[in-house]
Amino acid sequence: MAESLEQNYANHGRIDPLFHGFLVPVAAISFIAAVVNVVRFPTFGSAWLVVVSIAAVVAVFKMRLYSLKVQDRVVRLEERLRLQQILAEPLRSRVPELTVGQLVALRFASDAELPSLVTRALNEKLSKDDLKKAVAVWRADFFRV
Question: Is residue 61 predicted with pLDDT exceeding 70?
Answer without folding.
Answer: yes
